[in-house]
Structures are given as C-alpha cells and as structure tokens.
Amino acid sequence: MVHIPILRAGKPYESIEKVEIVHHATGDPVAAVSQANSGMLSRDIGRMDDTVLERFTVGELIEVCKKAAILFTAATLPVGDESQSFDDYITQLSATTGMPITYCRHNASKIQRAMGEVDIILRGLTRGFDLSILDVGHGSHAGGHLSFSRVGRIFGAVLPSNSPGVHSLWIPTVALKTPIVLKPGREEPWSPLRIIESLCAAGMPREAFGFYPTDHAGAAELLRCVDRAMLFGGGATTRPWQDDPHVEIHGPGYSKVLLGDDCADNWEQHVDMMVASISANGGRSCINASAIWTPRHGRKIAEAIAQQMAKVTALPADDPDAALAAFANPAVAESISASIDHGLRSEGAVDLTQKLRGSPRTATIGRCSYLLPTLIHCADRDHVLANREFLFPYASVVECDCATMPAAIGSSLVVSAITNDQAFIDALMTSPHVDRLNIGAIPTFRISWDQPHEGNLFEHLYRQRAFQIEPAA
Amino acid sequence: MTSAPTKSSTLSQRVVDAKERLDAHTREIVAWHFDPKTGCPFWLDYAKTLGWDPRDKIHGYDDLDLFPPFEDEWLRGGPVRRWIPKAYDGRPVYTFETGGSTGVPKSRINIEDFRIDYELFSETLSDDAFPKGADWLMLGPSGPRRLRLAVEHLCQHRGGICFTVDMDPRWVVKLVKSGRMNLMHEYKNHVIDQGLTLLKAHDNIQCLFTTPKLLESLCEKVSIRRQGIKGVFCGGTQLTAQFHRFAKEELLEGAVDFVPTYGNTLMGLACHKPFDPADNYSVIYYPPNPRASTEVVDPEDSKRVVEYGEVGRARLTTLTKEFFMPRFLERDEGVRHPPCEAYPWDGIGDVRPFSGFATPIVEGVY
Fold first, then answer.
1. Which domains does chain A have, with CATH numbers?
2. Do the beta carbons of residue A111 and residue A167 sit within 8 Å?
3. Which end of chain A is more exposed for a tag (fewer CB within 10 A), N or C?
4. Beta carbons of B116 and B157 less than 8 angstroms apart
C-alpha cells in the first residue's frame, strides 16, 4: 500500500496517525495517508520562509511551471518512498474518488494546461501589465506608474475531492512568488501532491510547499494561520468563513443556463448545450449547470433534456463510456436521493428522468452506488428543488419572465445566457448575482484562462500601493 | 500508586495480588457507604430501593455489576449534602464541578480525596523533571474545577508555590458551538499571554500543568525549555499518539519531560504508562487502583469487558470513603491494554470521545 506523507516545508513526514483510503469498487486499501495534528500546521506555517520564491523572477517561475506541466503528465514522480507514473496517478485517482478514468484524464489535462499556460492565466489576472513590475516592486504601465506589495505572504488552500480540475485555480500562486500550504480532500491527495512534486522536479525549492492531510480542526487551523486562503466546500463548511476577506470561498456554484425571450422559441437548438452544461465531468463541478431558466416552453425543454439524461447508465470507472462517478459510500448516494425525494413531496415538481427510466435514481455496481442523472421540472421557481446543487448531474427547469430573471436567479457562479436581447444582457451585466457571465450558447463549464472567476487570485495576494520615486540628491 | 511494585514477584503474581487488594478494598468501601453510621444519605436511601443489602452481596470488585450503571444525572443539582458520608459530618467540604456548558453541572463533593489522589500521583513524577521546591504554573481550567486546586496541592506537596491564571472552559465551549472561532482564539491568547507573563517574571517556575491546545499555543510563542521548564504535566482533553510524539519531539524539543494524564472530577487521576518506544507514542493510562478503576467495555453490553487490543467504551468505578461511584459509563472510548510492570492491572489507551453518541462532543478546545 502506498504511503502518502505530509510535506513540511517540502520534507516528507510520516505521521503516527494515518487514514486509509480505499478503492471505491473493491474496498481494497489504496493508500495510507499521514495525518497532521493541528498544532503542526500552526507551528510550520509560522516558520515557513515566505520569501523563498522572491529570489526568482516571475518570468523564471513561469518557465518552471511550464516545465512542470510536461513533467506532470510524462515523468515518474515520488509519492512518499514510492514512484508514481502518470498512469499510476490516473489509476489511483479514479480508484479513490470513483471518478471515471476518462474524466480523470480530462481533469489531469486541465491541470497540465493550467501549469503550461500559467503566463496566459497571469495575464488575465493582472490585466496585462508587465510582470517584471512584481520583480522590481514598481514600474511603468500604460503611461502611469504601478507598484504592488505582496500581502499574501503564505497562501493556503483547503481542497475538495470532487473534481481535480479545481486545482488549476491555485496553481498560479507559486508563479506569483507565494509559498503554499495545502490541505487535500480526503479521497484526493493525489493531484495536489503530484502538482507539488512536478513543480519541485522542475526547479521550485521544496521549502515553498506544505502538504497537510488533516481533519476539520487542522483545516480551520490552516485557514487561521495563513495570510490568504482559498476554501472549497459546501455551505456548512464555508459559512464560518463567509465574512473573512482573507478567505476566498469556492462553495456551491448554482450555475445556470438562461434562455432569453428572443431565443426561447428556438430552445431545441440548445438542448445538447444544456445537457452538456449539466452533465460534463460527471456533474461534479460548481461550473456545471444546476438549473435552466426560460420564459416559456419549460415542460417541453425539461422533457427533451430528460430524454438525453435518462439514457446515461452507471458503468465501471474503467469503462471508456463511463459518465458518472461512483459513491464509494452508498449511504451518501442514498442520502442525496432521499433529499430529492423529500423535495418532490412538495407539490409542483416532477422527476422526469425517473419517469422515463422507470427505475430508481440510485444504481449499484458491486459495492458502490451511483446517482443517475436527474432532471426535475418545477412549476414554480420558488420550489425547494428549483435551486439545488448536488454531486452528480442534476438540474431543474423553471419558467420565469426575462424582466424578473436577473434579480430572481439568486447567486450564480456561471450564467450562460442564450440571447441577443441587449436589454436582457444589460440587466445581467449589472446583476450582483452573476459571477461569470457567458453571452451565447456557451456551455457553463467552458472557461478561459484569462477570465478569472470567484475572485481574482492576484488581487487576493497583492495590494496595489501609491508609489512615487525621485532620485535622491 | 498504592500498590508499589515489588521487583521480587512476577507480573502475573502481582496482577493476582492487585486483584485481591481491589476485592478487599471494594468490600471495605461498600461496607462504609452502606453502613448508616458512616454512609451518605444518597446510598443509604438507594439501598432501600434495591431489595438487597450490598454489604451482603458484594464480596469483590466483580460483584459491583449487581449495581445498575451509575447515572451522572444523580450528580446534577442538589441537595449536594446527600453525598456527604455521615462519618465526615462537620468536616470542611469542597464541591467540584464537571460539565455545565449548558444546564446544571455535575457536582462531586471532596474532603481529602483530591489531595490523596495527587499525592499518590506525585510519587510517579521524576524529581529531575519536577524538582522538589520548584514552582509551578497552572495554565488550565480554573473556577469550580478540581484540577485547579489539585495541581496547586501537588505543587505544594512537592515544596513549590503554584502560579495560576483564570480560564473558563465553559465560555470556550460556547464560543466553539456558536462558531465564534476568532473570539475563541482571542480568549486563548489572553490566557496564554497571562501565562507567559508569569513565566517570564518568576525564574523558579520549572513545572507546568497545561492542556494540549494551550501547550501548542504557548510553544508557538516561546521555547518553554529556554524559559526553564523541566517537566510538563498535560491533560484535560483528548491526547493522541501523534500529538504525544509532536509534543515530545518538537514542542518540548526532546528536552522537557512530558507526562500525559487522564482523569476527571469523578474518578481522579490515571497515570500514563512510562514511555516505551515499543508503544509508538500510544498514550496508555492506568487508573489509581484500588481507589478507582477503568475498564473498557462493549458499548452494547456494558457488563462485558472487551478483549485486550479491542476498542470499547470507558467504564469508571470510584472506590473511596468520600465517594462511591460504581460502573459509570464515561463519554470516552479507548483500547483495552494489559497490565504492565508499573501497574499490574488493566489500562486504557488511545482515549478519544465515544463515537456512539448521536451528537458529537465538543472538546479539545482549551
């Protein structure tokens, strides 16, 4: 069995306490993960050298990231005392998360692109100023003078297990000269560790990295001790940190596809895009659509989407056609399904996929459970199931007039609005609910590196300051 | 503790001897508490509901299973005098509390027990790490807790003077339960700052009592080795093997003695098995037999002691002339350990909050 160590300033450490993570299908142990006690986090973070990456220019760090991108998918890298090829990584990732192999590869390529194209990401984050300004501390840009100071001396992230693609969000931190401390998701230590090892193999100093599998208390200690942080998780996890400006929250997305008045009658052209927005990546991301809002034809749209979603079946993770992630713990799947059934008891909602399938929402292969794609038609946008998000392909379809829609959708990480109606677009542009706005039939999961969402990592780590310079006499 | 091991006898013989001593002690304590001339009103009244006289039926420790489990609800609320043995009429009485973050705390009366328990514990401490005549800092829960006075008595018993701070764990629990973690850390820093001030101002403070969390926080700010601390007595909340190692190797820099303990107001103080690398930092506690006993029992059948190495719920029994508490199911679970050279009776290791409760216990916070 593989041992996954803690990395303390880059040095592997084997804890007395370990958590065993198992293969989702067989139950066989895959890895023993060393667990950090919370005091270790505060002690180590307090002792980290926050200037360790200052000796590199941003340009040099970008080159290291690009080299690491190649190593991430090509090299054999250490995991504790053992070696891990890229294929080993994919196999282990799928084994403990239940995610189909094809999705694991897709997410890995997203991580690779985030490292390989970190210069493009930084351009998006900094809106294109000359990055050598960060090396010197100040410099000219667009006829003015800019100066920045790094307030994120140590950056921390409490990471999820649901989708490895999210790691692309924190990778630019190291190119911005900021050492990082990571708390991986329980079932997904693989990706953050491999990213760290590929960056170190490419030339980053190991002291710039902390990797601490730990419990909730350890996660809270991490968030308390670092200067700036990212926190991934559901409402209960993120709520205590909601008002803390040092912590950037990545919670549920409640992403949506909206049909404008002008395009609603052409809804049939967009069914594939809507299904893909709901179902891509196993429906596990916050950028998956969890609701379709339309001014009319709601029931017809819902039926058409449900027709496609109901065709998806549970397949083993190594099947090339697998489109759903397994729940290693059947109780989790059952609990989610029960929560939907509870919502269906309130009048005005119907599970169209279940009707079409003629079978329950949960399926079982061996010891694991699957939640089959679920499309709910809600007669009322205030129905309890109209604005929910779950860890599988799930969406509701609701009707709402376009004049009300921008105010009524509520907090939405991604909105893809299919419309050419300028008044509707203008209303969405000014809506405080929309984080990432796509105009057109753009799937909600399609992101571009130069368009950051859920906060700007550069602005999280750096503060612009007023600066004047005059040669001393 | 009370049964100092004699090197001449084998461990198995000493296990037998200890059990005989426990049986004899049980008979003595039961006779005391159920005799109208010496017993307390609570047990004398209780005996009337049993339909049998404990003095006739309890011939040894195992017979205490005839009693139903001790209910901690009996300790909540008054009259607290119903717990005072008649033999101690007129003596000064303390009442110590446990719990009470919400609702009525549990109260246990004390006359001399806390002093006796800690004097016995004192015999297990090394004079190098806890020098006689050295002063102590008590950086832990204060107020109505037995620990506060007990540590001070331990210090005085060893010839020292004890410095203390105020610390209210009920307020900490409230802050944690309501999610006000920033306030909790502010309060913790307030406690630590007071401790640091005392440490820096009094050169003869060489011994420390504190809790795991406060030890971590203190060591974030200062090297307690360089502050002159030679021994740390630690307890109050869960203490894992990894924390034990972290404390010894890092917080205490491998140079300060670390003595973990397990106990509460109801039972007294269990000692840690002397450090043995073979235990891989497992924290294994042995109760102060025969004054108190700790067993590891099946959560589904609290009369069945689990096998060695198995996990079960902690069951406590207190057998002193001041307090009789048979078969109390504690809120902890742990692993049953066999007798060892220092303590020829069962121990309990890797103690943590009992996982069978529907609502998780808030602990480990101070």
1. 2-251 (3.40.605.10), 255-439 (3.40.309.10)
2. yes
3. C
4. no
Chain B nearest C-alpha distance from A240 (Å): 7
How many Å apart are CA A449 and CA A54, to the nearest integer?
A: 24
Residue in B179, B212, B220 nearest the CB of A46: B220
Pairing of strands A394-399, A289-294: parallel
Task: Name the helix (H) or strand (E) containing A398.
Answer: strand A394-399
Which amino acid would we find at residue A109? S
Judging by beta carbons within 10 Å of its beta carbon (0-12, 13-18, 19+), is residue B23 exposed, middle or buried?
middle
Whole-angstrom CA distances from A277 to A292, A299, A431, B255 are: 10, 18, 21, 60
Region of B302 (left: φ > 0; alpha: ψ -120 to 50; beta: rest) is alpha
Degrees, nearest 5: CA angle A70-A75-A76? 160
| Paired tokens of A106 | 């897709």
Of B202, B118, B133, B197, which Cα lies nearest the Cα of B165? B197
Provide CB contacts within 8 A for B240, sequence distance 6+: A16, A17, A37, B283, B350, B352
Q: Computed over its alpha carbons, how large is the radius of gyration of chain A?
A: 23
**Amino acid found at A81:** D
pLDDT digits (tens, 9 = 90+) for A376-395: 999 999 999 999 999 899 99
Number of H-type helices and E-type strands within chain A? 17, 24
SS (H, E, C) A265-314: HHHHHHHHHHHHHHHHHHHCCCCCEEEEEECCCHHHHHHHHHHHHCCCCC
CA dihedral A186, A188, A190, A195 (to 10 degrees): -100
Count of Cβ atoms closer than 10 Å to residue B60 Cβ: 15
Does residue B179 belong to the interface with chain A, where contact is any CB pair within 8 Å?
yes
Instruction: Report the residue from A35, A217, A240 with minimal CB separation from B242.
Output: A35
Rounded distance, CA A413 to CA A452, Å?
A: 12
For residue B364, what is the nearest residue in chain A, using CA coordinates?
A: A217
Which chain B residue is nearest to residue A44, measuring alpha carbons? Answer: B220
Nearest to A187 by CA among A296, A85, A95, A65: A95
- The closest of A313, A92, A50 to A194, measured between CA atoms, is A92
Which residues, in sequence order, are CB contacts of B224 under 8 Å at separation 6+? Answer: B199, B208, B218, B232, B251, B252, B256
CA quadruple A421, A425, A431, A437: dihedral positive or negative? positive
| Chain-chain contact of B241 with A17 (C-beta, under 8 angstroms) | yes
Q: Which of A273, A274, A281 is nearest to A102 (CA)?
A: A281
DSSP B251: I
- Domains of chain B are 112-260 (3.40.50.2300)
Distance CA B95, CA B146 (A): 8
Taking only the tens of pLDDT, chain B with its 366 residues reads: 444 445 558 999 999 999 999 999 999 999 999 999 999 999 999 999 999 999 999 999 999 999 999 998 999 988 999 999 999 999 999 999 987 777 899 999 999 999 999 999 999 999 999 999 999 999 999 999 999 999 999 999 999 999 999 999 999 999 988 888 889 999 999 999 999 999 999 999 999 999 999 999 999 999 999 999 999 999 877 788 999 999 999 999 999 999 998 878 888 888 888 888 999 999 899 999 999 999 999 999 999 999 999 999 999 999 999 999 999 998 889 999 999 999 999 999 989 888 876 554 444 334
